[in-house]
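PT: before anyone asks, these are the final sequences, not the draft ones from last week. 436 residues across everything. Please model them as a single complex and drop the result in this thread when it's through.
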Amino acid sequence: MDLERDFPDLVRSHQDLVYSIALRLTGHPADAEDAAQETFVRAYRSLRGFDRARRASLQARPWLAAIVLNTCRNRARAAGRRPSHAPLAMADGAATEAPSPADAAAEQETAMELAAALRRLPEVQRRSIVLHHGGGLTYPEVAAALGRAEGTVKADVHRGLATLRSLLDPRELLA
Amino acid sequence: MTDPLLDALRPVPAPATLLPTVLRRVGLAPDRYLVRPSPVGDVVVVHDRGAVSACLVVADRAIEDVVVEFARRFGRTCLPDEDPDQALVARVDRVLAGEPCDALHFDLSGVSAFQRAVLAKTAEIPLGEVRPYGWIAAEIGRPGAVRAVGTALGRNPVPLLIPCHRVVRTDGRIGDYAFGTPAKRAVLRVEGVDPDELERLAARGVRYVGDEAAGTFCHPTCATARAGGDDRRLPLRSAAAALERGLRPCPRCRPAAGAAA
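LR: through. Structure below.
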């Protein structure tokens, strides 16, 4: 691959995947965009050091997914734990807040709640869910990105989703 | 029925700003633009290391809006040329003032082969002259493709630089223009063509002018015809009428190219 010519296409083809993973992890579109940019810049620098064989055999999706996971973890450590801005709607049915009129604001709240709930999961479950459901990676791709067996990944996703369901009120998610 | 949790987790589109910002950060956004004056006001001329790919009119807009139009039409971003090559700027200015556009390199890679042929032929039309759409079609070997020529010119990515304003309707009327017909007339006037005169000739059915002393006939705006002086100019309604009088097509402006003799 000719890097100068092909890198923009690489970004175009994978930007939704990378951004979505970052959004599910950070809960904030601005942070997610920064993390996504960071990811692609790191990817570009790495690619410059790859020889032709390595570039040709690259599996872009798991490779980029691993970079964005790493980038978000580094950013979280540097920034310190970010407090969640919206209260979790607990399963005890506490009165839900009125949904905001703008779709964007409602989606934003959902993203933050989701990210907060995800942070309560063990890291392996969180990562598996975010890559498979947030990024759209297949189970084999998630396994490659995380260096874990496919069966383990599937189990992590199922357990993690069950925990999320118990943490999140579905009415909040639909708002 | 969708699962609200899986729906909330689903992938979403990345913001439109992500790609251009990444490319800028890694140094891969090579398109730069210049803002230059022209007969239709300021224009934005986009180039990649000297190869010109677009010319857009600013009109009453902010430059940022012109950049957005460029991104929408061409699928990539461009940045201001902060350290322009002065030789390039000078060449752009000269071509905008009417000099032959072979002074510039063009990057027309987004354009079809047919369109490129149309634009290359259009580039040959000298300052101060016009040619009909049908002439372009005949000259590129596609005499039946007159409407396609019109469409191709309408999509000229570098108007003013490649002079699609110098192509007029076969019936002599001025015709369409990406920047609007009044702009086309204005630019032609600046170049020394009188659009009213062209339309008067067309209204009288005059397609060509003959010069019996020279034995040739021309498009009315051909420099050879104009040099001959008014008293020598014989108005002609058709190539057939010219040929009947024993006149040959002018070798410079090649009227009725493809129409036998």
